[in-house]
From TrEMBL:
The keyword Hydrolase applies. Residues 303-533 form the PPM-type phosphatase domain. It comes from Actinomycetospora endophytica. This is Serine/threonine-protein phosphatase. SMART domains: PP2C_SIG.
C-alpha cells in the first residue's frame, strides 16, 4: 500500500519535487519524491534518480547550488519555484528540500502583452500630443522623425509629397538630431514603387525598399538591415514612413507593423493639418495685404502727405477704417479719401476693400468729389438689393467718407476739393498755430437713395495742414476712469501742438496722444490722413 505522504503529493495540483543527498554526507542530489504535476512540468525527473538525469540544467544547477528560488524556461514554458527545507538528520546534518513549482507561462505572456500594449498606447498618445497643434510642415516632419527613431526603428526616414515639384524628407536616427533635405519630384522616377507608396494606400511592394538605395537621403551610403516602407495617408499631402531595422518588422505583432501603420496615420493627419494651415495662412496674408491701407505715394510735387492707422483688432492688421492717396492724374490733381464702413474686423475690411475698388472704377467716368459720392451711394444700394434678392445673408453696406483731390498752385499753396457723407469734418492746422474746422456735412453713403453730400473747397497756404480722421479718434474712451471720449477739443489741442511739424509727424503725434488717452483699453479702428502745403522757404535759403 502506498504511503500516506505519496498519496498526499499525488493529490496536490501544485508541482512538488523533493530533492536531497543520495546518502548521508554525499554530494550527489537525487529526487526523493515527485508528484504527477511535477513530472508534467519537469519531464524526465523520476523518484530515486539523480537530478541531473532529468536533463534540466537550470533545475540541476539551483539544486546543487543550494538556492531557495528557481526560475527558468523549460520546454518553451516559464517555470518558477521555491525551495523549502523539510528535515534535518542530526547525525549527518543533511537536508531534504521540497520544491514547489508553478507554470507562469500564460501569466508572463499576459503581463508582457499588457506591458507592450501599454507602451504602445503610451507611445501613440505621446506622439499625438507632440504632433497635435504644431501647424508647421517642416517642424512636423522633424518631430515625426525624432519620435519614431529609437522607438519604431533605429533609423527613420519621413518623406512628404505635396502639390509642389519638391519632395521633402527628414531622416531621424536614435540619439542624433534630425537631418532635413529635399528631392526633386522628377528624381523619384528612379523609385516608382516608392512614389506609389507615397501616393496610395495599397500594401507596399517589397522592391520599394531596394529603390531607396539610390536616393540621396542617407548619410553613409545605402541602409543596411531590413527596410519597411509604410504609406503616410493624408487629405492634403501624402508621404511615406521608411523604417530601417536589424530584423524584419513583424507584420502580425501589435508593436510591429501595426504600430508603425497607426503612427503613420497620426503623422499624416498632423502633416495635412500643417499643410492646410500653411495654405490658409498664405491666403490670409494675400487677402490681408490687399485690404491693408496702401502705401502713400513716395513724393508728390507741391504736396506733403502723412498717415497713421490702428485697427481695433491689431492682430488682424485690418479693419473698417481706410484711406488712400492715388497717383497724380494727367490734369495735375492728387485724389485722396478716408472713410469708415459699418462693422469691425475682417468683414468690415472686406467691405472697405469693395468700397475702394468701386471708387477706382467710378473715377474712370467721374472725378468731381460730390458726384463720385452720388455714384458710390447708388452702387452700394444696388449691391445691397442684389444681396437681399439672393440666398446669401446680407450685411450693412453703408459707410462714412471724406474724399477729394489736391492741386498744388504756383504760389506754393494747395487747393483742396472736398466732399463728405456722414463723416466727421476735417481740421486745418494753419501755419500760425490756429486750428479751424472745415464746415462740411452729408448723409451716410449707401444708406438712402436720395442722400445728400456736402462739398467745399479749402486753400492750404504754405505750412498749412489738413487732417482727415475717423470717428475712432474722437470717440475713443479713456482718461482717468476710462469713460470719457477723447472728443474734438482734445483733438484740436493735439493738432495745435504740432504746428510746424511735417504731415507724417502730425499723424504720429496725434496717434501717440490718443494711445496715451486710451491707456491700453479697447478702441475702435483709427485712421488719420494729413495733407500739407510745404512751408515757404525764406528767400535767404535759396542760395
Amino acid at each position: 500500500m502506498r504511503s500516506l505522504s505519496a498519496r498526499v503529493l499525488e493529490g496536490l495540483s501544485e508541482a512538488v519535487v523533493v530533492t536531497g543527498a543520495e546518502r548521508p554526507g554525499g554530494t550527489r542530489q537525487i529526487v526523493h519524491a515527485i508528484n504527477p504535476a511535477g513530472e508534467r512540468l519537469l519531464p524526465g525527473l523520476a523518484a530515486g534518480a539523480p537530478v541531473e538525469h532529468g536533463g534540466h540544467d537550470a533545475f540541476t544547477a539551483v539544486v546543487r547550488g543550494g538556492a531557495e528560488e528557481f526560475e527558468a524556461e523549460v520546454g518553451g514554458r516559464s517555470l518558477v519555484g521555491r525551495g523549502q527545507p523539510l528535515a534535518d538528520d542530526s547525525r549527518s546534518g543533511d537536508l531534504l528540500t521540497c520544491w514547489y513549482l508553478r507554470d507562469v507561462t500564460d501569466e508572463r505572456r499576459g503581463s508582457r502583452s499588457l506591458h507592450r500594449a501599454q507602451a504602445r498606447a503610451q507611445f501613440l498618445a505621446e506622439a499625438g500630443r507632440a504632433l497635435h497643434g504644431v501647424l508647421n510642415v517642416e517642424r512636423t516632419l522633424r518631430t515625426a522623425a525624432t519620435l519614431a527613431a529609437g522607438t519604431l526603428a533605429p533609423t527613420v526616414l519621413v518623406l512628404l509629397a505635396d502639390a509642389s515639384e519638391t519632395v521633402r524628407w527628414v531622416r531621424g536616427e536614435e540619439g542624433a538630431r534630425p537631418v532635413p533635405g529635399e528631392i526633386a519630384r522628377a528624381d523619384l522616377r528612379s523609385a516608382p514603387r516608392l512614389f506609389e507608396a507615397m501616393t496610395g494606400d495599397s500594401p507596399v511592394d517589397p522592391w520599394a525598399a531596394v529603390e531607396l538605395a539610390d536616393l540621396p537621403v542617407w548619410s553613409a551610403g545605402p541602409p543596411t538591415g531590413h527596410v519597411t516602407v509604410v504609406p503616410v495617408p493624408g487629405t492634403v499631402v501624402r508621404g511615406a514612413l521608411v523604417l530601417v531595422t536589424e530584423t524584419p518588422l513583424p507584420p502580425d505583432v501589435e508593436d510591429g507593423l501595426p504600430l508603425a501603420q497607426e503612427y503613420a496615420v497620426r503623422v499624416g493627419t498632423a502633416l495635412s493639418a500643417a499643410a492646410l494651415y500653411r495654405e490658409q495662412a498664405h491666403l490670409g496674408e494675400v487677402l490681408q495685404g490687399s485690404l491693408e491701407p496702401p502705401r502713400l505715394p513716395e513724393a508728390v510735387d507741391g504736396l506733403v502727405l502723412g498717415s497713421a492707422y490702428r485697427p481695433a483688432r491689431e492682430s488682424l492688421r485690418v479693419g473698417g477704417d481706410f484711406y488712400e492717396v492715388l497717383p497724380v492724374t494727367p490734369s495735375g490733381e492728387t485724389p485722396f479719401l478716408l472713410g469708415d464702413v459699418c462693422g469691425k474686423g475682417i468683414e468690415a475690411a472686406v467691405l472697405s476693400g469693395r468700397v475702394r475698388q468701386s471708387l477706382h472704377a467710378l473715377r474712370l467716368v467721374e472725378r468731381d468729389p460730390a458726384a463720385l459720392l452720388d455714384l458710390l451711394n447708388a452702387a452700394l444700394l444696388d449691391a445691397a438689393d442684389l444681396d437681399a434678392a439672393g440666398a446669401a445673408p446680407t450685411m450693412p453696406r453703408f459707410a462714412t467718407m471724406v474724399l477729394g483731390d489736391a492741386r498744388p498752385t504756383p504760389d506754393g499753396s494747395v487747393r483742396l476739393r472736398l466732399a463728405t457723407g456722414g463723416h466727421p469734418p476735417p481740421y486745418v492746422l494753419r501755419a500760425d498755430g490756429s486750428v479751424v474746422e472745415v464746415r462740411l456735412s452729408g448723409t451716410l453713403v449707401g444708406a438712402l437713395r436720395d442722400g445728400e453730400f456736402g462739398a467745399t473747397e479749402v486753400l492750404l497756404r504754405p505750412g498749412d495742414t489738413c487732417l482727415l480722421y475717423s470717428d475712432g479718434v474722437t470717440e475713443a474712451r479713456g482718461g482717468p476712469d476710462g469713460r470719457d471720449f477723447y472728443g474734438e477739443e482734445r483733438l484740436e489741442g493735439a493738432l495745435a501742438s504740432c504746428v510746424g511739424a511735417p504731415a507724417q509727424v502730425v499723424c504720429e503725434r496725434v496717434l501717440q496722444l490718443l494711445s496715451a488717452w486710451l491707456g491700453g483699453r479697447d478702441h475702435d479702428d483709427v485712421a488719420l490722413l494729413a495733407l500739407q502745403a510745404p512751408p515757404a522757404v525764406p528767400r535767404g535759403d535759396h542760395a
